[in-house]
């Protein structure tokens, strides 16, 4: 299991759309940035890339490259997920905190959660998004804390084969197999 950390901040700007978690939120200001400036998705991407040891979004998608001008951050997240998949890594869970004085985000969190779960190819129950306020109304930031990614491991023993004297016990928990050593006496 690997754990990463991501953080992103953008200033509010006029004549820009406010997009968070792939959801366009009605507000008089948007976020300044080279792409669509979706801070939530940017924080998640950095956390996932960090957990995988694959640098960060600034290295993969530089803001000096015109190919990324105005691009949807959801498309960039798809590219990150392709890299994780190529490395045989899967997302275990993601927890994101968005810090913004305004606008109020709670009505949009279910749609953001579903968008993120779909993009991460995981269950929405493994994605947590929360919003809080802070006394800095000129910025909006997001922090993705400790997303867990892992390589699926094949079972050492098939569940339908008797394990009379096996060294390991199979535990089934949330569609994954875990092994714990045990001692058995006859």
Model description:
There is one protein chain. With 186 residues, the protein is of the alpha+beta class. The protein has helices spanning 39-52, 57-60, 73-86, 109-120; strands at residues 2-13, 18-20, 23-25, 30-31, 90-99, 127-132, 139-150, 168-173, 176-181. It has a 5-stranded mixed beta sheet with strand order 4-1-7-5-6.
The major pleated sheet works out as: 5 strands, mixed
List the total number of helices.
4
Percentage of residues in DSSP E strands: 25-35%
Report the count of strand segments.
Answer: 9
Helix content: 10-25%
Structural class: alpha+beta
Q: What's the mean pLDDT score?
A: 82
What would you report as the Rg, rounded to the nearest angstrom? 20 Å
Overall, the morphology is globular
Distance between the termini: 34 Å
Helix-strand topology string = EEEEHHHEHEEEE
Lateral arrangement of strands in the main beta sheet: 4-1-7-5-6
Uncertain segments are 161-186
Summarize the structure.
With 186 residues, this protein is an alpha+beta fold. The protein is 24% helix and 32% strand.
Comma- or semicolon-separated keywords:
two-stranded antiparallel ribbon, alpha+beta, 9 strands, 186 residues, 32% strand, 4 helices
